[in-house]
Amino acid sequence: MKQSHYFNPTLRELPADAEVISHQLLLRAGYMRQNAAGIYSYLPLGKRVLRKIEDVIREELDSAGAQELLMPAIQPAELWQETGRWEVYGPELMRLKDRHDRPFALGATHEELITSLVRDELNSYKQMPVILYQIQTKYRDERRPRFGLLRGREFIMKDAYSFHSSQEQLDDAYRLMHETYSKIFTRLGLDFRPVVADSGAMGGKDTEEFMALSKVGEDTIAYSDSSDYAANIEMTEVHVQYEKSGEPEKELEKTNSVAEVGAEKIIKFSAYRSGEERIIVLVRGDHEINEVKVKHLLEVEMLEEIHELEGLNPVGVSGVKVVADNAVKSVVNGICRLDKELVYHNVNPERDIPVDTYTDIRFIKEGDPSPDGKGTIKFAEGIEVGQVFKLGTKYSEAMGANYLDENGKAQPIIMGCYGIGVSRVMASVAEQMHDDNGLLWPKTLAPFQVHLIAVNVKDEAQNKLGEELYEKLKSEKYDVLYDDRKERAGVKFKDSDLIGIPLRVVIGKKAGDGIVEVKVRKTGETFEVDASELESTLKRLWDNLD
Predict the structure, then answer these.
(1) pLDDT tens across 265-294, in order?
(2) For residue 83, pLDDT beyond 70
(3) Distance CA 528, CA 520 (A)
(4) What phi and psi, each to the nearest 5 degrees, are found at residue 283?
(5) Which of 4, 13, 223, 249 is the most exposed place for a label (fewest CB within 10 A)?
(6) What average pLDDT score do residues 474-496 get?
(7) What is the average per-residue pLDDT within 203-219?
(8) Residue 202: pLDDT above 50?
(9) Please, are residues 188 and 385 in contact by the beta-carbon 8 Å criterion?
């Protein structure tokens, strides 16, 4: 492709609203342009990278026996109403009506739609297992789109669904998809870790996220410094033994001031509502409430925090469920502050607060013991690029997707679900692979293999050699971007660094002698080679690239 005719508008200035490096570089290097908050157009360079990501995904999924299909982005509301998610999914679901006033949703995910497809087709245990997948645009009305492709309102996703007649089949498929995802992300060049995760609104019991390690990640990974244990911080269990001091209990006091005490002496609380039930949750002052753990404990999908406490005072409360973190039980003569004017001193949970349940409901902290008993916990930030779920029968039962087992008895189809954020992968690679000058694409994803640059196309020798090498490399099946623009050398080199193509061939002042310079973008290594040896040099360098 000749760059003089290639649609690749680069930017010299840093985009004002681009907070993270992937957003900045993908805009500056001409891979994409923003159309609205969280909505982007992919320009030719960006589309080439996306296609290469999709190619890797397809190759590995097809090799694993999955079958590709394509479902509509516009989904009838009644499918979501069958599972109850029309009401509970929330404002992120983009809803619309057609000219006949019938309600639809733009697909945020496709569990309902794929279940509606298979319930009329997979009727016998003999037809399973089956794994189906698609690569398609998804829509979520994010409250605060940010970080470019990392949190958008429109994004490209691969979603796969598996269908089974037994739990053993699902377990096998889950392991297979886990292995397949590891192969995919390894081939894409990502530094990643699979971590235990929360299933959220998707439902199901077992799930793991694949996290690309990055300082701008919105998720925190808790990992052991002595083993391969890793989990999303929301799901990391706390295994700490708390010792209660031998301090004698003092008489409960009400005051309007807080004494100077350590955080381990303070009892913090929040109040929640789940349906009609109200719940008070307690943690120690040096800990934070983990709402995901609270939801799992209560077996609910939604919790509403009660900001106006409605008279909910944990000291002596009655008729309200009280749940406390394990650490609270060790507090002796603690402090519990209700508001600016009311503070309880010498609070002893067993005596003064009617706790119904002590359990693990706090976030783990760095330095806590690892849940697997090996080492201590450290934190890292990560970007979720994929997730695998065991959905079970959540959707099949709600939507009547049944099959006949060996005895001719109707059973709900057992399901799994497996997602990869395709456009998010592109941004995650950009976050991990760049330098001060621009992008550093791995060879599996680079939009072109070689960036051929004629420093001065007005020079007859350079122009002639440039055209010859361009045609020769194309004939040798190299994917080449040829910068034949009438631009200054500095502009061409800056654009080349920004774009991040792995190998650069520069045709300069020694063109008349048939000498060119080859540069490896990632390492900065340069070689002067005779044009006759260019192809063999490129092959050697390409084969040794990551």
Answers:
(1) 999 999 998 888 899 999 999 999 999 999
(2) yes
(3) 12
(4) -140, 165
(5) 13
(6) 97
(7) 84
(8) no
(9) no
Question: 142-161 burial string, b = 16+ CB within 10 Å, else e?
Answer: beebbbbbbbbbbbbbbbbb
User: In the predicted model, is pLDDT for residue 204 greater than 70?
Assistant: no
**Segment 163-167 mean pLDDT:** 97
Under a CB-based contact definition with an 8 Å cutoff, are residues 131 and 67 in contact?
yes
Least Cα distance to 451 among 435, 473, 431 occurs for: 473
Domain covering 448-543: architecture: 3-Layer(aba) Sandwich (3.40)
| DSSP 8-state assignment for residue 507 | E
- Predicted local confidence at residue 528, as pLDDT: 97
d(CA 281, CA 293): 11
pLDDT score for 205: 62
CATH hierarchy code of domain 21-65+110-235+379-431: 3.30.930.10
For 301-311, the pLDDT digits (tens) are 778 888 776 67
Matching fold, domains 21-65+110-235+379-431 and 253-359: no
Distance CA 31, CA 8 (A): 7
Second CATH level (architecture) for the domain 253-359: Alpha-Beta Complex (3.90)
- State both tokens at 204: 């199901």
Q: For 355-497, where are the E strands, in sequence order?
A: 357-359, 377-392, 402-404, 410-412, 414-421, 434-435, 438-439, 450-454, 480-483
